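Protein: MoaD/ThiS family protein
Species: Nakamurella flavida
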Amino acid sequence: MVRYFAAARAAAGVTEERLTLPDPATVRLALTEAERRHGAMLATVLQRCSFLVDEIAVHGRDTVLTDGAVLDVLPPFAGG
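Structure follows.
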Protein backbone atom coordinates (compact mmCIF):
# COMPACT_ATOMS: atom_id res chain seq x y z
CA MET A 1 0.00 0.00 0.00
CA VAL A 2 1.27 3.47 -0.90
CA ARG A 3 -0.21 6.49 0.87
CA TYR A 4 0.33 9.95 -0.60
CA PHE A 5 0.29 13.18 1.39
CA ALA A 6 -0.01 16.88 0.47
CA ALA A 7 1.67 17.67 -2.90
CA ALA A 8 2.25 13.97 -3.61
CA ARG A 9 -1.49 13.34 -3.21
CA ALA A 10 -2.28 16.20 -5.57
CA ALA A 11 0.24 14.95 -8.16
CA ALA A 12 -0.93 11.33 -7.97
CA GLY A 13 -4.60 12.21 -7.91
CA VAL A 14 -5.26 9.56 -5.26
CA THR A 15 -4.85 9.32 -1.51
CA GLU A 16 -3.62 5.74 -1.54
CA GLU A 17 -3.25 2.74 -3.79
CA ARG A 18 -2.10 -0.86 -3.85
CA LEU A 19 0.76 -1.75 -6.15
CA THR A 20 1.65 -5.19 -7.46
CA LEU A 21 5.43 -5.44 -7.45
CA PRO A 22 7.95 -8.20 -8.20
CA ASP A 23 9.60 -9.94 -5.28
CA PRO A 24 11.77 -8.68 -3.71
CA ALA A 25 10.07 -5.31 -3.87
CA THR A 26 11.91 -2.13 -2.90
CA VAL A 27 10.99 1.47 -2.32
CA ARG A 28 12.65 2.25 -5.67
CA LEU A 29 10.42 -0.25 -7.52
CA ALA A 30 7.30 1.10 -5.83
CA LEU A 31 8.19 4.67 -6.78
CA THR A 32 8.97 3.66 -10.37
CA GLU A 33 5.56 2.00 -10.64
CA ALA A 34 3.86 5.04 -9.09
CA GLU A 35 5.62 7.32 -11.60
CA ARG A 36 4.55 5.04 -14.46
CA ARG A 37 0.92 5.24 -13.32
CA HIS A 38 0.76 8.94 -12.55
CA GLY A 39 3.32 10.64 -14.78
CA ALA A 40 5.89 13.40 -14.74
CA MET A 41 4.19 15.63 -12.17
CA LEU A 42 4.44 12.92 -9.51
CA ALA A 43 8.01 12.08 -10.59
CA THR A 44 8.98 15.69 -9.95
CA VAL A 45 7.36 15.73 -6.50
CA LEU A 46 8.99 12.40 -5.53
CA GLN A 47 12.45 13.92 -5.97
CA ARG A 48 11.79 16.09 -2.90
CA CYS A 49 9.95 13.56 -0.76
CA SER A 50 10.91 11.54 2.25
CA PHE A 51 9.45 8.11 2.91
CA LEU A 52 8.25 5.94 5.76
CA VAL A 53 7.84 2.17 5.60
CA ASP A 54 5.46 0.93 8.26
CA GLU A 55 5.93 4.29 10.05
CA ILE A 56 9.75 4.05 10.12
CA ALA A 57 11.90 6.55 8.19
CA VAL A 58 13.58 5.18 5.08
CA HIS A 59 17.09 6.38 4.27
CA GLY A 60 17.54 4.59 0.96
CA ARG A 61 15.36 3.69 -1.97
CA ASP A 62 16.76 0.15 -1.99
CA THR A 63 14.94 -0.61 1.26
CA VAL A 64 13.03 -3.88 0.86
CA LEU A 65 9.25 -3.83 1.16
CA THR A 66 7.69 -6.90 2.74
CA ASP A 67 4.29 -8.11 1.59
CA GLY A 68 1.65 -5.84 3.10
CA ALA A 69 4.07 -3.01 3.92
CA VAL A 70 2.76 0.55 3.92
CA LEU A 71 4.89 3.15 2.12
CA ASP A 72 4.10 6.75 3.07
CA VAL A 73 5.17 9.45 0.60
CA LEU A 74 5.83 12.72 2.44
CA PRO A 75 6.69 15.92 0.57
CA PRO A 76 8.39 18.71 2.49
CA PHE A 77 5.91 20.46 4.76
CA ALA A 78 5.95 24.16 5.57
CA GLY A 79 4.90 25.71 8.82
CA GLY A 80 5.35 24.60 12.35
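Remarks: The longest strand covers residues 50-53.
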